[in-house]
Fold:
Amino acid sequence: MWLSKKITENSGDSPFTAFVSFSDGSSVGLGSSSGSGSAALFLPYGIECVPPRGEQAVVVPSGRTRCAVGIRSKNSLRLEPGEIALYSKGGASIILKNDGRVLINGQEF
Structure:
């Protein structure tokens, strides 16, 4: 919350959500009740993704630029608090469990 307030305090624009209509990995096309457009895609260093169509994104306006800063989590893998998962639309997954186990495509390591 603090970050979104700090980013938008000079522009007067507020963060909003929109649905991904296309993505090329560096930007996303967006559709929302307030119209459509595109936004630069920002992710943590070392993580890359191309969000699939229909996912809900958080968009932060910053001057003339709009930045997509995240995709809504669905917790479809039923993670416990503190666990982390990486997964693809095709079903591949890596899950870091709280008890130290690592699950790769469901197989324990």
